[in-house]
Every structure is written in C-alpha cells, then in structure tokens.
Design brief:
Blueprint (H helix, E strand, L loop, with lengths): L2 H5 L6 H4 L13 E2 L3 E9 L3 E8 H5 L6 E7 L1 H4 L4 H13 L9 E6 L6 E6 L4 E2 H7 L6 H20 L2 E2 L8 E4 L2 E4 L6 E2 L25 H4 L6 H17 L8 H8 L16 H7 L11 H20 L17
Length: about 325
C-alpha cells in the first residue's frame, strides 16, 4: 500500500511531512520524545494503535494526573509516505470539537528517535460500551438506556453542527464515565465541505474501513460519509443497548436485506412504544429516510421523560422544545 492508495490521490502535503524520515518498522522506543513513557497497550484497530502513557514533563511540573493516551499508526500504515498527514487529519478533526462528550486531544508530534508520528490525548476512564453490553446481554433498563442514547445523540449533533463526520460509531468507540458517554477514534472521519479544507482523506475503497454491523448500507456500496450514515450507526448502537443484540446482526444491514428481503425489525422490549417509530426510521436502509437528522430521534427519546415530568410537576420551566440540547433542566 502506498501513499496514493492510502489517501486516494496524489499528495498535496509535501512541505513538512516530506522532511520526516521513513519510520523504522517495529521500532518503538519506550520513551517518546523524552517525555511520554509508554506503560501499556490500550487497543489496536485497522489503522492505529493506542497506548497508555505517563507524561513525565507534566508529572515533573506537579500535575496530579499525568497519564495520557498516545495514538500511533500501525507499522504497515506508518510505512506509507503520506501516513503522517492522515494521522494529523484525525488529530485536527478531534481538536475541532470542544465538547465534554468528545475525547480531548493535546499535541501532535514526531518522535525524534523512531520518526513515528503520534498525538497525545485525554486518557478516558469508564466502561466501554462493548464491555457494558457483555455485562448486560439482555439490554439496559430504559432509564440508563435513554441517558446514554441522549448523550450519544447530543455529541453527534454537536459534531455535525461543527462540520465533522465520525464514520465509525460503534460500542467499542464509546465509553461511559463520570461525564456521561464520550466518543473517540475519528480515524475514519472527515470534515464536511468547507470545513477544515485541505486535510488528507482516507481512500475507503482501498482499505477495509467499515464495521458491517453498524455501517449504513450505502457506505458498503461506495457512497460517501454523510450525517445520515452517522445517524444510522448511532441508532444501531442504541438498538443494541435496548435489546442486547445488533439490529441487523454481525453481517449488517445490506447482508440482511439481501438474505431476507422485506424482513422487518422487532421493537426491543426495553424501548417504549412511543420511541420506536423514530428509531425505526433512523434505521431505514434508504438514506433519504434518515435526512431528518439527529434532532427527530433526540426529541423522541426525550418525550417519555417529559410526559412523566408533566404528570408530576406540570410543564418543566427549564425545558424549551426548540433548544439544541436534548436534556431536561429543572
């Protein structure tokens, strides 16, 4: 795989990255740039690897929590001459989003010894949603489910409102912590037209990028990322949280549509009947049916809470039906 295959076009980022030497394969010093001491592997995906690290400079300056996460590219990806621009794109997309539900990134660097590019970011603590699903195989109760779902949709609406598409929403890229649900790994994301122009873009037709169980069927047919495809993936996660199983199985929506045409989805038992129509529409195989966006599903998920509050207190004074946040403030 060369740079053109990875990024889908000739390089237009030569000015700085051309001066970075080819990384040494398999060589990863335990201390990056004399500052970040790698302490353990956190996870690995199709493109990148994430380590837990100790920021020795921050620790020396008295920082009580000097732990960070470090993301690098896999050896085979790092060998591509333009891979540095690709990792920088992920860093820039994430930095563009200042929201408590999005992982915070710190700095983008090149390790002097190994010539490996990397960026440091917030070390998230909490329960990854894929692990939560393993511990709750029948799905979550409505109270917990709705809180997570509204948090996820709030993050997604914020990202879309700031011109960023995630491209890989799935339980393993979400974590539930003290601040609620947090989204990370924008490695397959991209900016909408007119936002952060000039960033490198991954050529998805030459790399196995999608997770079939959460990928909108149009993506598997070669269509570009969109707000509708992000909504589809997020709704697959919500459906799974509600019933403990993926709506279209591990092989995804396109495979189910081909093998069982016309088969309808069942409402998960933990999902209120009033919420189901909006959720089902967001899972439509037709992207045009998902163009209403995140807001409609937010309102549907918030509605049962509002009905209960109105029975108890009347119209909640702090709630405005047309506000951007789906949360209710009393």
């Amino acid at each position: 795989m060369n740079a053109v295959e990875l990024l889908g076009g000739a390089s237009d980022h030569p000015s700085y990255f051309a001066t970075v030497a080819t990384p040494l394969p398999g060589v990863l010093p335990p201390l990056l740039n004399g500052r970040y001491k790698l302490e353990g592997l956190l996870g690995a995906g199709g493109v990148g690897i994430v380590y837990r690290a100790r920021d020795l400079l921050a620790e020396q300056c008295g920082e009580p929590r000097p732990l960070v996460a470090i993301k690098l590219l896999r050896d085979d990806v790092a060998a591509c001459p333009d891979s540095a621009a690709l990792l920088y794109s992920e860093y820039a997309l994430t930095r563009h989003l200042s929201h408590q539900g999005v992982v915070r990134v710190h700095s983008f660097e090149v390790d002097a010894a190994s010539q490996r590019v990397f960026f440091s970011m917030q070390l998230l603590s909490g329960m990854p949603l894929d692990r939560l699903l393993c511990e709750q195989p029948l799905g979550l109760a409505w109270g917990e489910l709705s809180s997570i779902a509204l948090g996820l949709l709030d993050v997604l609406a914020f990202a879309h409102g700031h011109g960023v598409l995630h491209g890989d929403i799935k339980p393993s890229n979400l974590i539930l912590g003290e601040q609620g649900v947090q989204l990370f790994d924008f490695g397959l994301g991209q900016a909408m037209d007119g936002v952060l122009d000039g960033l490198a873009r991954l050529s998805r037709n030459r790399i196995s990028a999608w997770t079939p169980a959460y990928a909108a069927p149009e993506l598997l047919d070669g269509a570009p990322l969109s707000t509708a495809s992000d909504l589809f993936a997020a709704t697959c996660v919500i459906y799974e949280l509600a019933g403990g199983k993926q709506p279209f199985g591990r092989l995804g929506a396109r495979s189910m549509g081909e093998q069982h045409p016309g088969q309808s989805l069942d409402r998960p038992a933990n999902l209120p009947a009033k919420v189901w129509p909006a959720l089902r529409q967001a899972l439509s195989l037709d992207p045009a049916a998902r163009q209403s966006g995140v807001r409609v599903l937010q309102q549907a998920l918030a509605a049962p809470h509002l009905s209960l509050l109105r029975r108890w207190f009347g119209q909640p004074k702090g709630y405005l039906a047309d506000t951007e946040s789906p949360y209710v403030h009393l």
